[in-house]
Amino acid sequence: MSFQNQTILPAIKNGKTLEEFLNSSYEYGVILDSTLSQLPGFFRAAKKSGKKLFVHVDLISGLKNDEHAAEFLFQFWKPDGLISTRAAIIAKAKQRGVYAIQRLFLLDSNALEKSYQLIEKVQPDFIEVLPGVVPHLIREVNEKTGIPILAGGLIRSVDDVKKAIDAGATAVTTSKQELWVHYSK
């Protein structure tokens, strides 16, 4: 499973980065660090441009990160996927037939083990590993779960992207526009 062979999933934080995404060759993008009031404009513009959006549900100010928030998003904007640390959000995305992306923070061994248990239970379509600059853990998570990996967080250079992809990541989520340009089709 891939996103039209995109190495980069552009992360959209505001109107400027939305415009850059809309003018790019990328089909899929990720909304993060946004507000509930910005979502209608983001979705209208994306639909008009034929772009697909994933929403980091946990990072939308004014929206609680629970299954009711997910249902709200589906009723009004029909995102192409949801990203969250919460099992209820992942379950709702799977129920609605869109990409379900489980966010996994590499904090310590205990957190990683708890994440593995959650992942086994909810079976997301993808796992977003943060920070995405730890290639041996990207490889481990991929091998242990058998679920495709997205790498995100602290990706700052072309070399960081290359290392994440070489370690087994399907794609990299980043707000660094210079990386969008470097990897655009």
UniProtKB/TrEMBL annotation:
It holds the Pfam family G3P_antiterm. Keywords: Glycerol metabolism, RNA-binding, Transcription, Transcription regulation. It comes from the Bacteria. InterPro entries: Aldolase_TIM, GlpP. Regulates expression of the glpD operon. In the presence of glycerol 3-phosphate (G3P) causes antitermination of transcription of glpD at the inverted repeat of the leader region to enhance its transcription. Binds and stabilizes glpD leader mRNA. This is Glycerol uptake operon antiterminator regulatory protein. The lineage of its organism: Bacteria, Bacillati, Bacillota, Bacilli, Bacillales.
